[in-house]
Amino acid sequence: MFGASYTHVPSNSLYIYAPKQLPSDHNSPSLFHFLCSQIQLSFQSIPEMETFLFTSESVNEGHPDKLCDQVSDAILDACLEQDPDSKVACETCSKTNMVMVFGEITTKAKVDYEKIVRDTCRGIGFTSADVGLDADNCKVLVNIEQQSPDIAQGVHGHFTKKPEDIGAGDQGHMFGYATDETPELMPLTHVLATKLGAKLTEVRKNKTCPWLRPDGKTQVTVEYRNDSGAMVPLRVHTILISTQHDENVTNEQIAIDLKEHVIKPVVPRRVS
Predict the structure, then answer these.
(1) What string of pLDDT tens digits covers the 272 residues of the chain?
(2) Which intervals hold domain S-adenosylmethionine synthetase central (predicted)?
(3) Which of 155, 228, 235, 255 is 20 to 30 A from 200, comparing alpha carbons?
(4) In this structure, which CATH number among 3.10.20.30, 3.30.1360.60, 3.30.300.10, 3.40.140.10 belongs to the domain 4-61+177-266?
């Protein structure tokens, strides 16, 4: 853990939690913690009431989790494009300048897995070892086998079952819920975290912030009040942005740019 500076300020202003010294690995994300009860914007004072904090986070396309998701998704798409009956259980993992794809796939499609990996990484922006992964020169490991006969028989009977009788394997499914607190019908924390992540990617790709690198994560905490069972957002409490960056950019410049080009265009002046 590297040293950090902390200054107490009034609750209606902004403070920056920034490392005094960057990690030796300049590709490691540097953490900037924006505590924004108002983000230097005006909010009315809130009387005492039953309130709580709720946090959502979103990772950028260059984050290892999202990179791996996109590679697996691209392989699935390539299989389904040629063979709609493809059965794909594909996993991807990555480390510095290496991507590995493994799993069980049953398909009639002819898929160049290595090309898909490199094309996906290149499209995200991993084009140099300086950013942790070079799409054209990184090591790509592929270990794909046919789906096991037992699973194949149980799931789709080796294509002997009718479509309505085809089952699913043990793949996980994520689920959520709708809420009327935003036009998107999603929790405000999720909407803001996702939009901040998208803006972070946008200002990287259009060179507004040329010091940005692909990996990044955003996290938003909102204070809510309980209004007879309805959760009503009151204010943005905390914004946290962790981003990969060029080794030569200063902490001060990162803070200024993220506030002006990422936070202000996304976070509303009022949330209720």
Answers:
(1) 223 322 333 333 333 333 333 334 444 444 444 433 333 333 344 455 689 998 888 999 999 999 999 999 999 999 999 999 888 989 999 998 999 999 999 899 999 999 999 999 999 999 998 888 999 999 999 999 987 666 666 666 555 566 666 665 555 556 667 888 899 999 999 999 999 999 999 999 999 999 999 999 999 999 999 888 888 999 999 999 999 999 999 999 999 999 999 999 999 887 76
(2) 165-269
(3) 235
(4) 3.30.300.10
Q: Which of 102, 201, 93 is nearest to 145 (CA)?
A: 102
Q: How many CB atoms lie within 10 A of CB 47?
A: 6
The CATH class that applies to domain 64-165 reads: alpha beta
Could you tell me if 244 and 216 are in contact, meaning their C-beta atoms sit under 8 angstroms apart?
Answer: yes
Q: Is there a common fold for 4-61+177-266 and 64-165?
A: yes
Strands (E), 37-120: 51-59, 87-95, 98-106
